[in-house]
Amino acid sequence: MSKTLFDKIWEKHIVKQIDNGPAVLYIDRHFIHEVTSPQAFKGLEKRGLKVFRPEQTIATADHNVPTIEQHLPIQDELSRLQVSQLVSNCQENSIELFGLGHPFQGIVHVIGPELGITQPGMTIVCGDSHTSTHGAFGTIAFGIGTSEVEMVLATQCLLQNKPKLMRITINGKLNESVLSKDVILHIISQTSASGATGYFIEFAGSAIRTLSMEARMTICNMSIEMGARGGMIAPDDITYNYLKDKLMAPEGEDWEKARAYWKTLFSDADAHFDREIVIDAADIQPMITYGTNPGMGIPVSEKIPTLDNVSADEQTSFQKSLQYMGLQAGTSIKGTKIDYVFIGSCTNSRIEDLRLVASFIQGKQKSPDVIVWVVPGSKQVEKQAITEGIDKILEAAGFQFRQPGCSACLGMNEDKIPAGKYCISTSNRNFEGRQGPGSRTFLASPLTAAASAITGKVEDIRDWMNPSSNKQKLSAAFYE
C-alpha cells in the first residue's frame, strides 16, 4: 500500500492505537525552554514522578534572555526566575541544558538542527508552536501545551489524533529576488491564516528541492501560521550534507545505517493526500504583511486590498487590523516610514540569513531614523558571524549586532518595539502587541528588511537589483 512521508513516520512511532480514539505516539526528541517547562516540572513533582527518559530531552534558554550583556544577571524579575528555575529543573532531572554562557545556547529551533540533534524520521515536540521548523529534515515535529510537556517528561509519549494531510507543491524556478520567507508568506496569503487547520503539510516540488536547509527551515517554521499542525519536507542529499559531521549526528557505520533509513523517507508516487495545492514558483514575488495576522500579506509592489476584495465575514477584522496598523485600504505600503528593523528569530537568524544581509549592506549606511537589531539564533551562529567578519560589516552600517535569543520576535524580554512604532521584522508573527504593547509589525524577508533599513522606509528589493540603476546588484550565488 502506498504511503505518504507522514504515514511512514507516524506508523513507526505508534505505541498503541486506541479504538476510535487517538494514538499513543512515541516521541524521539523533546526540546524544552524556560517559558513552558516550569509548570510541567511542578506537575511531576506534585505527582511524585521522575523524568522517564531524560537523555531524550534537551533544554536551552531563549525566550526571556537579554541580547546584550548576557554575562550580567537578568534584570527582569520574572525572566530571571524562569531561567533560574530551568537550571534547577535540569540539574535535578539530569537533563542536558544549554543555558546562558554555554557555547551551544540559542533559540531552541536553531540549536537542534545545527547540532545534529534533529534527524530525519524522528518525532519531535516542544512547548513552542514553531517546533514545526524541524519538519524541514523530514520529521513529524509540532508544538505542544504545558500539560503535554508534562506528559512527555513522564512517559516519553503523547496522545495524538492523526491529522489530515495536505501537500503543497511548488514547481519551477524562483525569481532571483525571492527568498524562502517570501515563498511561505505567499502561500499563507493564498490559503489564509486558518486555511490549513487540521492538516499536516508536506512541501514538495522542484522549487523546494533546490532550497538550502536554512531556507527549508524558514518555510516549515511558518507552516503553523496557516493553521497547520506542522510542515515537513522529505530528506535528500541537501539534508544529508547538512547533517554530515554535525556534533550529535551519527558517525561511521551508524551514519551509513541512518542514511540508508533516511533514503526511504519520501511519499510514494501514488500516495493519497486529503488536499493538494500546486503553485508556480514564477508567481511568487517579494512579500510583506499589512495586517495583524501572517495571512494578511501582499507583494511589496502592490496595494493593500480594499473592502470590496475582502469576504463579508472578514470585513470587520480587516478594518480593525488596518486601524491598529494605521494604514488605509487601497494604498501602497512601499515607501511607508519605519522606525525599527529586526533581523532574527527562529525564522531567519541562521548564518545564511546573516551572510545575505551582510552582503547587501556592505558599504552602505542605515537611515539615521531607524534602529536596527540583528540577533543571531545561537552562540554557534554568533561565533561564525564574528569569524567571517559579518559583525564588523553590520556595525559599520550602523546595525546593532546583539547576542543570541528570541529577542524582538515576542514581547517577553527587553527587546520590545514601542507603541505606535513600525518595525519590519523577519520573525513569524505580526499579532497585535506581539513585539511589544501597541507595536506595529510588517513581516518580510531579510533582504526586504535590510533594504528598508538603509532608506528608513519600506523598500522593494527588486529596485536595488536592477542592473540599469546605480544600486548594487547582489551576487546570484546567494540564491543558488
Structural class computed from helices and strand pairing: alpha/beta
Task: Indicate the proportion of strand residues.
Answer: 15-25%
Count up the helices: 15
Q: What is the average per-residue confidence, as pLDDT, rounded to a whole number?
A: 95
- Our count of domains comes out at 2
What is the CA-based Rg, rounded?
22 Å
> How far is the first residue's CA from the last residue's CA?
37 Å
Within CATH, the superfamily of the largest domain carries the name Aconitase, domain 3
List the helices and strands and how they pair.
Blueprint: H1 5-12, E1 14-17, E2 23-26, E3 29-32, H2 38-47, E4 57-60, H3 77-92, E5 96-98, H4 108-114, E6 123-126, E7 140-143, H5 146-155, E8 157-160, E9 164-171, H6 180-191, E10 199-204, H7 206-209, H8 213-221, E11 230-232, H9 237-243, H10 252-262, E12 275-280, E13 287-289, E14 297-299, H11 315-325, E15 340-343, H12 351-361, E16 371-374, H13 379-387, H14 390-396, E17 400-401, E18 422-425, E19 440-443, H15 446-455
Parallel strand pairs: 3-4, 3-6, 4-5, 6-7, 9-10, 9-12, 10-11, 15-16, 15-18, 16-17, 18-19
Antiparallel strand pairs: 1-2, 2-8, 13-14
Helix pairs in contact: 2-5, 6-8, 12-14, 12-15
Describe this structure in words.
- This protein is of the alpha/beta class and 480 residues long.
- The protein has two domains: 5-276, Aconitase, domain 3 (2-Layer Sandwich), CATH 3.30.499; 287-479, Aconitase, domain 3, CATH 3.30.499.10.
- The chain is 30% helix and 16% strand.
- The protein contains 15 helices and 19 strands.
- It has helices at residues 5-12, 38-47, 77-92, 108-114, 146-155, 180-191, 206-209, 213-221, 237-243, 252-262, 315-325, 351-361, 379-387, 390-396, 446-455, and strands at residues 14-17, 23-26, 29-32, 57-60, 96-98, 123-126, 140-143, 157-160, 164-171, 199-204, 230-232, 275-280, 287-289, 297-299, 340-343, 371-374, 400-401, 422-425, 440-443.
- It has a five-stranded parallel sheet. Strands 17-16-15-18-19 form a five-stranded parallel sheet, with helices on one face. Strands 11-10-9-12 form a four-stranded parallel sheet.
- Helix 3 links the parallel strand 4 (57-60) and strand 5.
- The radius of gyration is 22 Å and the shape is globular.
- The two termini are 37 Å apart.
- Mean pLDDT is 95; it is low at 467-480.
